[in-house]
Structures are given as structure tokens and as C-alpha cells.
Specification:
about 250 residues; alpha/beta; Rossmann fold; 8 strands
């Protein structure tokens, strides 16, 4: 089982990338689990028809017993979906949902039941502290992939995430797998992100072109992989999945 964390600034398209990569990996015959680690709890929503699923934190907060099946949903191509959730607005720490989700998944035997080949954590990266750094920790993600555009705030957030990965490496935490450029068509975008990656001894492993098909697919409550499987956008997500598979040696035992 390989565990990957996708980090990026809020709104940069990391959930779109994560969901389409999950679908592409599942298309290759792999069992994939995607864990949404954003308080909005919408990471996996287009993998299961646009319907929200109960979040782990909501189930915990209800104070009643619940089963593994209550916190998971099997979506498109068999992707197992989990949403950590967040606190009541204005109360509590958003990172607590991530900690609760990961603890409950282990406690309820999720990995033994579903036996995923790949686990993808989709993590909000505006801040990298507390629960938001949990997927980087030893025993969780093996590799961190940072999604960014060439916009200044996105670059700033990506640099902070990369610094956190670098600071944690001496503890045996996840290592940096590379940067994914989600293009917004700003000036010198490719060069700026390549320079950022080089600053951290890494590289840009893939570039995703901006496409109207993403919003069209989401209007249909689907991923691009499901709605437009033969499109150039879907091919780019397949290529990204292939690159990640090669870097992380995913599925070599299959």
C-alpha cells in the first residue's frame, strides 16, 4: 500500500486533480482510497454523483456508535471515499477532523477491509500545522505532491508546504514527490514553478492545462475522467497518474 498526500492552496484545484488521479489509478485496476482532509468536505464529491457523504467528525460529534460503512462511500471506478470534515464554524480546530478521521479509519480496520493499493490524502495547504500536517507524519503518507499555479499566493503557499516537508524529513516523515503545475495562464508560469521546484531540489512532474471541461464535468457532478474520458484533459490526468505510479512504484506487484 502506497500513501500519497496532495497539498495545495485552497482553490488551486487539488481536489479536482486528486479525484481525477484517483479515477485514473482505479482505471488501471488498482484499489484506491481518497481521504478528503478539508473542512469543506467536498474532496470526493464528484466521485459519487455530487452527493455529500457523512463526515467522520460529524459522526464522532453525534456521540453515537457508528460503523466503518457509515464513514465510507464507494464511488466511481470503485474509489473508496472518506471525508474528514471540520468543526462547527467559529468553534474548534479544523485540523481535528483530519486527526479524528485517520484515527477512526485505523480503529475500524478500513485498510484491512478495503485493502487499498493507493491511499490519497487531499489536504488544504494554506497552513501546515496541527492536524493539517498529520498526513505528512511517519506512518501516513509516503510522498507529498504539491499542486500550484504560477500565481503569487499559490507559489507562496507551495513554498511553505515544501519547507514543512523539508523540516520534517529528519523525523522519517513523508518526502517530497514533486510539484504539479495546474496552469492558470499567468505570465512566465512554467518558469516560475520550475524555479520553485529547483529551490527545493525537486521538479515539476506534470503540467495540467486549464480546461473548461473541468467545470462542465463538475456541473454534471462527475470527474473529467468519467464525463469526458477521451478528452485531452482526461489524457493529462492519466499521464499524471502514470508519472506518479512510476515515481512511487505503484502496482508493480500486480
Amino acid at each position: 500500500m502506497i500513501k500519497l498526500a496532495f497539498y495545495g492552496k485552497g482553490g488551486i484545484g487539488k481536489s479536482t486533480a486528486a479525484s481525477n488521479v484517483s479515477a485514473a489509478l482505479a482505471e488501471k485496476g488498482l484499489t484506491v482510497m481518497q481521504i478528503g482532509c478539508d473542512p469543506k468536505a467536498d474532496s470526493t464529491i464528484f466521485l459519487h454523483g455530487g452527493e455529500k457523504i457523512p463526515t467522520v467528525l460529524d459522526l464522532v460529534r453525534n456521540g453515537e456508535g457508528f460503523e466503518l460503512e457509515d464513514m465510507t462511500c464507494v464511488g466511481y471506478n470503485g474509489v473508496v471515499c472518506v471525508e474528514a470534515g471540520g468543526p462547527v464554524p467559529g468553534l474548534g480546530c479544523a485540523g481535528r477532523g483530519i486527526i479524528a478521521a485517520l484515527e477512526e479509519l485505523e480503529k475500524k480496520g478500513a485498510y484491512e477491509k478495503y485493502q487499498p493499493d493507493v491511499v490519497i490524502y487531499d489536504v488544504l495547504g494554506d497552513v501546515v500545522c496541527g492536524g493539517f500536517s498529520m498526513p505528512m507524519r511517519k506512518g501516513y503518507a509516503d510522498k507529498v505532491f504539491i499542486i500550484t499555479s504560477g500565481e503569487n499566493m499559490s507559489i507562496y503557499a507551495a513554498a511553505n508546504i515544501a519547507m514543512a516537508v523539508d523540516n520534517f524529513k529528519s523525523r522519517g516523515y513523508a518526502t517530497l514527490g514533486g510539484f504539479i503545475l495546474n496552469r492558470r495562464n499567468v505570465k512566465n508560469e512554467d518558469e516560475k514553478v520550475a524555479e520553485l521546484a529547483a529551490d527545493f531540489g525537486s521538479s515539476v512532474i506534470a503540467g495540467i492545462d486549464r480546461s473548461e471541461l473541468v467545470s462542465e464535468a463538475e456541473d454534471m457532478h462527475k470527474t473529467v475522467m468519467e464525463a469526458f474520458p477521451e478528452s485531452s484533459a482526461a489524457k493529462q490526468y492519466r499521464a499524471l497518474a502514470d508519472k506518479i505510479s512510476a515515481l512511487c512504484k505503484i502496482g508493480e506487484e500486480k
